[in-house]
Design brief:
Blueprint lengths: L11 H22 L10 H22 L11 H23 L4 H7 L3 H12 L6 H19 L11 H24 L5 H25 L8 H24 L6 H5 L4 H13 L6 H18 L3
Helix pairs in contact: 1-9, 1-11, 2-3, 2-8, 2-9, 3-7, 3-8, 4-11, 4-12, 5-7, 6-7, 6-12
């Protein structure tokens, strides 16, 4: 089968790890940068509509230019639909609406359960084997996330309320499901074709949720910082991030790709504290330790 991209053609495994490292930095920064435009200048669901429709057009163009044009098999259409629902509709709606309600550090910490979710889905869907140590790791990691969610008393606080944390938790689950579904599809198709359909189908479903927010946006009111955040979210946290996280699944396993989520809370915490928009409490520290240990035990192999 012809290679779908020159980006990973030479030393694909090494380049995949380098690209995932870069995405971890972008992902961690996105928790901070995105809040400069959401929800002050544009509602979270309105931004999602822009991401979905522009992403569909972007990947449609790249798919047309791609040398690999393998037609989609009929039995894979439902899998692509599920990828779209999990990777775009649920993932984006819950992430940005959750980020608008919670703090960057909380969001990045809770996303650490994503590798656990990936491993859990791999057990039931891909029939991966798991030891009792892996099972305990899942329990510990999820418990840490729940501890962080349930520790909030003020649901209206913008420094991390329970509803926002819960949305991010649901987002982590949906992303794990997307990675598991996309992995076998990447062995058949180029990433542009998969993402074209993923974003195209997703755009239809997110439109009703974000239409009113989209038409109410006053782009003339955007500050330079807001414009920077807007384009950062589109170019780096959407187009590049989805491409890399999907394309690398052709060369490395979903569990290994999920490991790079660990770096995001560190990046988010450093940036948040440096710019003075967040703090790291004792509860967050304990929750983070539980999640980190849980994720480590989940990925540990005998």
């Amino acid at each position: 089968m012809k290679k779908y991209s020159n980006l990973l053609q030479d030393k694909p495994i090494l380049k995949a790890h380098l690209l995932l490292s870069m995405m971890a930095l972008i992902g961690g920064a996105n928790y901070i940068i995105a809040k400069n435009v959401v929800p002050v200048f544009i509602g979270p669901s309105g931004l999602i509509v822009i991401r979905a429709f522009s992403g569909a057009v972007f990947f449609m163009i790249l798919d047309k230019l791609s040398p690999q044009q393998t037609p989609i098999e009929k039995q894979d259409y439902w899998k692509i639909f599920a990828c779209s629902f999990a990777g775009v509709v649920v993932n984006q709606l819950f992430f940005f609406n959750g980020l608008a309600l919670t703090s960057p550090i909380n969001a990045s910490l809770i996303m650490l359960v994503s590798p656990i979710v990936i491993t859990l889905f791999a057990i039931f869907i891909l029939k991966d084997k798991v030891s009792w140590l892996n099972g305990f790791g899942m329990f510990l990691g999820v418990s840490g996330a729940l501890m962080l969610i349930l520790s909030k008393k003020d649901l209206s606080s913008n420094q991390g309320n329970s509803m926002g944390d819960l949305f991010i938790f649901i987002n982590a689950i949906s992303w794990g499901f997307y990675v598991i579904l996309a992995a076998p599809l990447m062995q058949k198709y180029n990433p542009f074709k998969l993402l074209k359909w993923t974003f195209g189908i997703g755009a239809i479903f997110v439109l009703p949720f974000g239409y009113e927010q989209l038409i109410s946006v006053d782009f003339n009111a955007f500050t330079p910082k807001a414009w920077f955040a807007f384009w950062f979210v589109l170019l780096f946290a959407t187009y590049l991030a989805y491409y890399v996280h999907t394309a690398v699944l052709k060369h490395i396993s979903p569990a290994i790709s999920g490991v790079y989520v660990y770096f995001q809370p560190v990046v988010a915490a450093i940036i948040s504290i440096l710019v003075g928009v967040d703090s790291f409490s004792f509860t967050k520290l304990i929750s983070a330790l539980m999640i980190f240990v849980g994720v480590y035990l989940t990925g540990k192999r005998n």
